[in-house]
Amino acid sequence: PVVSQQAAPAVSSKPSCKPAVFVPVDRSPEIQEARLKLPILAEEQVIMEAINENPIVVICGETGSGKTTQVPQFLYEAGYTSSNGIIGITEPRRVAAVSMSQRVAKEMNLSHRVVSYQIRYEGNVTDETQIKFMTDGVLLKEVQKDFLLLKYKVIIIDEAHERSMYTDILIGLLSRIVPLREKKGLPLKLIIMSATLRVEDFTENTRLFAVTPPVLQVDARQFPVTVHFNKKTPLDDYSGECFRKVCKIHRMLPSGGILVFLTGQAEVHSLCRRLRKAFPFQKNSTAGDDDDRKESVEEMRKFKKSRRRRKAATLPQINLDNYAVVPVDEGDEDRDAETDDDIAGSDVDLDLGDGDSEEEEKSDSSLPLYVLPLYSLLAPEKQAKVFRPPPPGTRLCVVATNVAETSLTIPGIKYVVDCGKVKKRFYDKITGVSSFRVTWISQASANQRAGRAGRTEPGHCYRLYSSAVFMDFEKFSAPEITKRPVEDLILQMKALNIEKVINFPFPTPPPAEALAAAEELLIALGALKEPPMTGRLKEQQAAKLSCPISPLGRVMATFPVAPRYAKMLALSRQHDCLPYTITIVSAMTVRELFEEFDRPAASEEETVKLKGKKGRLVQMQRIWAGQGSLQKLGDLMVMLGAVGACEYSGCTPKFCEENGLRYKAMLEIRRLRGQLTTAVNSVCTDAGLYVDPKMKPPTEAQATYLRQIVLAGLGDHLARRVQAEELLDDKWKNAYKTALLDDPVFIHPSSVLFKQLPDFVVYQEIVETTKLYMKGVSAVEPEWIPALLPSYCHFGKPLENPPPSYCPETGRIRCHRPSVFYRVSWQLPAVEV
Ligand code: ADP
Ligand code: MG
User: Which domain of life is it from (predicted)?
Assistant: First the structure.
């Protein structure tokens, strides 16, 4: 490697840094041979010397050079795990954590008891574990329990270039933990690994590291890739364009694998089907297509069954006595779901069937195309297929989401087809309103994607957009932390006693307004101690940005859910509401419980089928919504009812399929319920809580308490229906006013309260499609508001643009939009919460 010039000669004088032992590894000859081809192998000595001599090292290398699979093995062989302490590797994606632990275990010929993984809901870590792959969220949770991470000898932060929020925070924290461990005489090694992308954010950030860490550049041995731009950029149908491009490549160009980048699971499946139809191949020929799918359904079923068994084991009878054996308390990571449309869209194959030239594209050449899908939530066995050579006499074609960009390297790719798009979740910085959008990738991503074509020989990359469009791409995509609400993160940091969050050594700090919004919300929820209102306004504002955590905040921080939901949990011991709140919160966290039937259908027949399914779902939702005062709990009651009914039926794929529930979501809810039950039991040590998967519906009184609990957690998500006399114009018809937005918002048509239009509601989230829609809606009574949310209320006449008001009783300064609340009555009823 080239050790960069900027590196200071940070040679540690402590010999204790260098373990003396050499631990032999018994690898098979094939593995050994494959390893020797990896560029990083030649650099083992240089890398290990740099690690031995420096507390912090940055390793940059082209994707596929062997960083993730080999560096942990180097460390193991050099004896880093031979005395008390293990190697931890963090990945931003679950799929990488699981797949890499399996690969490394196989390469080293060790069992998964030794080379293990831990992701949010599952893992196979044991007492014998020496190499542990995990998601970055999992490690962040561990920092809370043991700030110095004493269990670890080495921490590897992998895929740092992805700039995931947790990765950024971990790097900030570790920049402090490493010197502290050094001082204690228990040195910790930190290795930051990244694709060859901008690393200056880490290395040239003087707030981060006192001494600039050496940057080792692993020689890429990248073959040249010829980039072909489209003359024109297709507007919408990039999927169809991909199809045509793959057909052309396959017919006209010499052998070599094809890798196609699309944005989501449904698109991936759809393209796979079209390609299999066009280039049939025994098992997945048109006739055999069904076979293949049958086989894959069967595989999926097996996979789910095995997962079910594991999951079933984590839920039952959690009480304090067996707390120690319940292996859950993990970070709170679900990025796969966010970047994949597993959540954004449907799980079902969606054949776009754009009808164009499928016939004429039908190949007359007989060379079959071996088509494989790849996306983050694909069953691991199917994922592993892409690493195996294709059947002889076929050409490999992998249709992938951007997991193939840097997380996984597929061998034998010569042609890359890049649609130039990626699906991302977008948030409004202040309100947290989110939406999934397909957007252009960055130039860095485009180059990464192109690079996949030149791993084994010179290759070609076909970009389905023009070079002018490419020039308009942003250079790098912005770090996640600058793009999303950060209240969950701030609460976690406060729980680590980092009070002046603003001074934290973020590799890239979140925008000041996002930090302020987060602190504001946490103060309103009671998670932070409000600063005394003395001194000048400026000083007060500064004090507000460094509030310490409150006892309630500490309780909230132990729950692996968003702070609003954590507040609900913290309030729910009363009236035996906990089992219900846990279920509601789990359902809200997992999101998208119901299948989406409002999608375009390929045929008349399918349209009828979808309609029927939707009808059934609507009917069931009405039943799940309950009766009497239960109904007012609205969509949250539907969630409760759906989960209860599903568990009652044994949570089978059949029940879910018949009733429009997403099986995968139901399984996640089950796991999260188990996890939250454990968390609650560890906070309320006398609760001895056991959540019955098949719980009874709440009583009428409990339903009312639940609505109050929900209100207390979602206080800033309160909305008041616009009354007839206020109707400004037609666009306000049936609209609601919210505290956070000026625009009209509406109850989503899928809500059971869509027709009821209660005067006051709280909502789980606002999503923007054609209008701003509230989802997860529940009705609240106006008289509860001043009692439960005093800090949000302004008792007085409504003002158009009120100045910040000062309340002498509470000492609070508030900016209000009292128009939302002016119907709130003065009498404070006795509300017990
Ligand atoms: P990097 O982290 O530098 O991107 P990796 O360590 O992930 O590189 O990959 C090194 C090599 O190992 C690649 O050639 C990749 O194809 C191969 N590889 C990774 N996982 C598997 C697997 N499950 N089966 C076969 N080969 C694999
Ligand atoms: Mg890697």
Answer: Eukaryota
Distance 218 CA to ligand 2 centre (A): 12
Lowest mean pLDDT among 17-31, 306-320, 682-696, 803-817: 306-320
Whether residue 38 has its Cβ less than 6 Å from ligand 1: yes
> Which residues does 826 contact at the CB level (< 8 Å), separation at least 6?
786, 795
For 38, 517, 712, 788, 821, the CA distances from 811, given in Å and listed in that order, are 64, 19, 21, 18, 20
Give the DSSP H or E segment for 261: strand 257-261
pLDDT at 688: 61
65 pocket-lining for ligand 1 (C-beta < 6 Å): yes
Taking 90 as the threshold, does the pLDDT of residue 382 lie above it? no
In three-state secondary structure terms, 367 is coil
* Ligand 1 atom at shortest distance from the alpha carbon of 99: 23
pLDDT per position as a tens digit, 142-160: 998 899 999 999 999 999 9
Write the DSSP symbol of residue 550. Answer: P
Kindly state if the Cβ of 137 falls inside 6 Å of ligand 1.
no
Cβ-count burial of 468 within 10 angstroms (0-12 exposed, 13-18 middle, 19+ buried)? exposed
CA distance 281 to 753: 51
164 contacts 24 by C-beta, under 8 angstroms? no
831 Cα distance to chain centroid: 37
* Token reading at 641: 């009812």
Q: What is the pLDDT of residue 682?
A: 75
Which mutation among 91, 103, 159 tests ligand 1's pocket best, with the greatest number of atoms within 8 A of CB? 103
Query: Can you count the helices (H) and strands (E) in the chain?
Result: 29, 23
The three-class DSSP label of residue 736 is strand
CA distance 490 to 746: 30
- For the purposes of burial, counting CB atoms within 10 Å of the CB of 781, is it exposed (0-12), middle (13-18) or buried (19 or more)? middle
| For the ranges 243-247, 312-316, 540-544, 816-820, the one whose mean pLDDT is highest | 243-247
- CB neighbours of 470 closer than 8 A, spacing ≥ 6? 229, 420, 443, 446, 463
- Alpha-carbon span 635 to 381, nearest angstrom: 37
pLDDT value of position 636: 96
How far apart are alpha carbons 61 and 69 in whole angstroms? 13
Q: Ligand 2 center to residue 440 CA distance, Å?
A: 24
Q: Tell me what percent of the residues of the chain surpass a pLDDT of 70.
A: 77
Contacts of residue 224, defined as CB under 8 A and 6 or more positions apart, other chains included, come to 454, 458, 459
Is the CB of 776 inside a 6 Å radius of any atom of ligand 1? no
Name the token pair of 764.
């789980």
Strand partners, 452: none
Q: Which of 663, 661, 674 is nearest to 300 (CA)?
A: 663
Quote the percentage of the chain above a pLDDT of 90.
40
**Minimum mean pLDDT among 33-37, 102-106, 309-313, 555-559: which range?**
309-313
Q: Which are the contacts of 651, defined by CB distance < 8 A and separation ≥ 6?
A: 308, 666, 667, 670, 693
Q: How far is the CA of 449 from the centre of ligand 2 (A)?
A: 14
What backbone torsions phi and psi does residue 440 show, to the nearest 5 degrees? -65, 145
The pLDDT of residue 819 is 35
What are the pLDDT digits (tens) for 570-598? Answer: 888 778 888 999 999 999 988 788 988 87
Check: CB of residue 786 under 8 Å from CB of residue 704: no
pLDDT for residue 348: 25
Single out the residue of 757, 755, 735 nearest to residue 820, CA to CA.
735
Does any ligand 1 atom lie closer than 6 A to the CB of residue 795? Answer: no
| Average pLDDT of the segment spanning 685-711 | 80
Q: Is the pLDDT of residue 825 over 70?
A: no
Q: 382, exposed or middle or buried, with CB in 10 Å at 0-12, 13-18, 19+?
A: middle
**Token pair of 515 as six digits:** 């930090």
Comparing 101-110, 362-371, 427-436, 527-536, the range with the smallest average pLDDT is 427-436
